[in-house]
Amino acid sequence: METALDLFNQLGTPNISTNHIALELDISPGNLYYHFRNKEQLIEELFATFEAQLQPLITPTFAKQITLEDVWFFLHFNFELTAQYRFIYRDTDFIMLKCPSLTRKFQRILKQLNSSLLSLLNQLAAAGALTTSAKHTLEDLALNMALICTQWVRFNQHLSGKNKADVTSEDLSRGVYQVLSLLLPYLDESYQAHLHTLRSEY
Questions:
Q1: Does 24 fall in a domain?
Q2: What 3 state SS string does the chain have?
Q3: How many domains does the chain have?
Q4: Is the pLDDT of residue 186 over 80?
Q5: Which of 87, 99, 109, 184 has the fewest CB atoms nearer than 10 Å to its CB?
Q6: What domain range includes position 141?
Q7: Which sign, positive or negative, has the C-alpha torsion 86, 161, 198, 136?
Q8: From CA 71, how far away is CA 74, in angstroms rounded?
Q9: Would residue 12 count as lying in a domain?
Q10: Residue 181 domain-assigned?
Q11: 99 falls in which pLDDT band (50, 70, 90)?
Q12: Tell me: the pLDDT tens digits for 114-133?
């Protein structure tokens, strides 16, 4: 599974066959077939693992009043997992074509992420961090934040010209800041300064 994940991430899911994976593992294709009958089964297994690891991240609970640090780390953990399974967001069209059973699951993930971000925004507004609590404004912000969360790794690699395998902690922190920068026009002044401090610290 780990080998398949690495190859999908580095070379692209459409470019990898079970023969490539068997060669990388130094086993026969027949031996691999004993465990996974085809590439689709491998993709489905990896997706299931991704979804299981993502669930606690996109359904966060905070025992106290939410802070910008809470949101920062929530986003960073999500970015880390997105980078670890980046083939899913990069090769989505191919994956859904090959594994149509994943379409609804993927849609559910996107909706849960969007819902979690909206919940965080509502909590920030309630804490006085945001200068607006307008429903349509927060919904628009959550949607744009979700878009960056799911597409940043891919976009940043194209922008920087980095190899598909190169995703650094700095790349992820930049992504987190890009998400939170959407809030700048709506953040209370003290929280704006705090966001800039977080950026320099992380």
A1: no
A2: CHHHHHHHHHHCHHHCCHHHHHHHHCCCHHHHHHHCCCHHHHHHHHHHHHHHHHHHHHCCCCCCCCCHHHHHHHHHHHHHHHHHCHHHHHCHHHHHHHCHHHHHHHHHHHHHHHHHHHHHHHHHHHCCCECCCCHHHHHHHHHHHHHHHHHHHHHHHHHHCCCCCCCCHHHHHHHHHHHHHCCHHHECHHHHHHHHHHHHHC
A3: 1
A4: yes
A5: 184
A6: 39-201
A7: negative
A8: 5
A9: no
A10: yes
A11: very high
A12: 999 999 999 999 999 999 99
Q: What is the CA radius of gyration of the chain?
A: 19
From CA 199, how far away is CA 21, in angstroms rounded?
39
CATH of the domain at 100: 1.10.357.10
For helices 103-126 and 68-84, give the axis angle rounded to 10 degrees: 160
pLDDT tens digits, residue range 133-152?
Answer: 999 999 999 999 999 999 99
pLDDT at 169: 87
